[in-house]
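Blinded run. Sample ID left blank on purpose so nobody reads anything into the name before looking at the predicted structure. Input follows.
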Amino acid sequence: MNILPTISRLGLYLAAALLMAANTSWAQETDPAEYQVQGLWRNHDKDSLFPAKAYQRLYFGASAGTLAITDRVSTCSQAAFNAYAGYRFSPIHSLRLNLGYSRLDVPDKFRGAPSISLGADYVASLSDFVGGFNPNRIVDFSTVIGIGGRITRYTGKTKISPYVQLGMNIGFRFSNQFRLFVEPYVGLTSRQTELFMRECPSRFNLYYGVMAGIQYNLEPLRSGITTANSNFDSWFVDYSCGWHQPLVQGANTHMSGVQSQFSIGCWITPVIGLRLGAVAQEHWHSVTHMIKAGARDYDIYRSQHMASVRGELMFNIPNMSKRWRKTDHWFDLNILGGISYGWIRRDHLVQSERVSCSTWAYTAAVQTLFRASTDTWLYLEPRFERNGFDLPSGYDTPENSLTLSIGTRLYRSNKANRRLQRSNLTHRDSLYRFRRNLWVGAQAGMLRVFHGTDNRPADGGVGISPAFGAEIGYDLHPLASIRGIMTYGTTKFNNEKYKMLDLRLSYMLNISNVWQGQTPKRRFDIYWNVGPSLSFVSKRDRQYSFGVWTSLQGTLRVMPKWDLYAEPLVQYNFKNGINPGNGQSIDNIKMGVMLGTRYHF
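Blinded prediction complete.
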């Protein structure tokens, strides 16, 4: 009895029902006959079969990301690296073999635990299963089910730990042979008693992480359908938010923070452009000391807040090719270089002093962009900075830092394009016309919680706290909506757990419609949220505080009544009565990112 194909097909049907986003406007319409014949490749002017040669079904890839193992009490995490080779049995089904390496940051006397993993993954393409095989699809979704083992070295001892994991592979086609991807995953592994130096509460440990990388397919080369480029004669606005990591000497110093940038720019030529932006940044310094018992004792050192203006020169590398400039692509790559100047404030907690001064920086970045709609792009931007400080005491030296940001770019559509987008509509486009309606949604994410006048992270370290919420809203106009949100989360202070409940109201302004004009053909919109908040923090007695909050929200309409969104936010509470004994409030500032979904009635 062929029970394995039956189970596989049932799993694909279930996953496809939950992820109809696989057949969004990025995918071309698929002929029913082509859907039935999954092996058929339509190559524009001729048909060719799925590669008959075995080597043309092979693919290879490499990725890097994070791995975190938890025993419900603490978490060991570190960077992870992976290389793999795979084989496609059909456009839907494939198998890949993985070789991974990580070095876990173990909280005990020894410095890290090297770990090598070997595993096999079954990969099922949800996009091809739902929408039929389409070799020109730009964005595709696949489920990944894997098993394997991890070989870890603990203080001279070696342990083999089997694991099983589930992931979601989101791919972006650069060409038919090259593919960029992001793959979040979660799994279970055998009990890691040696890793945490104590007995774990359960027989298994949960682990999770995310990987990002590139894949190369050995299939034959094909050309894609292209259109004329019209964005380089218009202005654009950029917004990005990311993780900021100063680079310092010495293994006992720990820093981390966030950085946001809002910019406006234009292209002087298809190759050279200018961008001017405002930058806000914060990060926290702590110094680690080793005490007699061997455990770590964190001595908080200082916080830092900065606001500056950044000017950059942009170079579009692909547009140096005349052939590339003649066509409109879904992928772009920019190199940026520039300078910034601003003001910085440092709170030196050990010496109980505050220093404010001007700061400058030289900066360079690489911007990888992906088209979300006609005039909207999403991008990933790693950045290097060389910072200097004009302190009167002269005890600070220049510092280097790295920032990894995710952002969006909105081009200013001209009137002719907006008129064409409104008139040249398919039946599918007409479903996205504006309608007054009520919607409900749910969200989850991670918040960076600060307390007190010095704005220290609430747990004394990175201050990351989980949060979950529900929302309700109403669309008033193509430019405006109202929204109410309730979120619940937890935070720690002095190793004690506190509960957090936030009630938020907001006015939502559709920045995409303001900047580009309202059109049903656009599936990705940017909203600005601003409004009041009411927060409750409790351990035994509940205290409340009024505040204000704001966010920028990127919304993807995957179906006429279904949206997905990502939302970086900042909330400031005016007053909080919680006093743990040192005159500090627990819930002073929140910063973080929420991911959510909503349904329109």
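Unblinding after everyone has recorded impressions. The CA atoms of residues 66 and 86 lie 22 Å apart.
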